[in-house]
Specification:
Layout lengths: L1 H20 L7 E5 L2 E13 L5 H11 L5 E16 L2 E19 L1
Antiparallel strand pairs: 1-2, 2-4, 3-4
């Protein structure tokens, strides 16, 4: 029992130290090697009650940021609202939302 408690305490201390040391904020220009650099332009959001895809999100990004090259960190949300009349379901409205971060490659 003492061995399990000791291992658990060691893991808790490790996670505490790890959580306190990773607090840096992200810079505006990222690079993972010398040939690929990009600049973050901003957040993009596209909503539709129909089907959604990357092409529509990229079009929305280019409408906000004309020099946008790509959209990264994409998240998709689906919201369903059910219409009820006197305890009977009469329909539902589905809204799809796509979010991402627009970037511009620096050449």
């Amino acid at each position: 029992m003492k061995k399990v408690l000791g291992v658990g305490l060691l893991c808790a201390v490790f996670l505490l130290v790890l959580g306190c040391t990773i607090t840096s904020t992200a810079p505006l220009v990222y690079t993972n090697n010398e040939s690929v650099k990009f600049q973050i332009l901003g957040e993009v959001k596209y909503e539709s009650s129909d089907r959604i895809g990357y092409t529509e999100l990229l079009k929305a990004a280019r409408a906000l940021y004309p020099d946008c090259d790509y959209v990264i960190d994409i998240m998709i949300d689906k919201k369903t609202v059910t219409k009820i009349l006197f305890f009977f379901k009469i329909g539902e409205v589905v809204t799809n939302t796509m979010r991402g971060t627009a970037i511009k490659y620096i050449r």
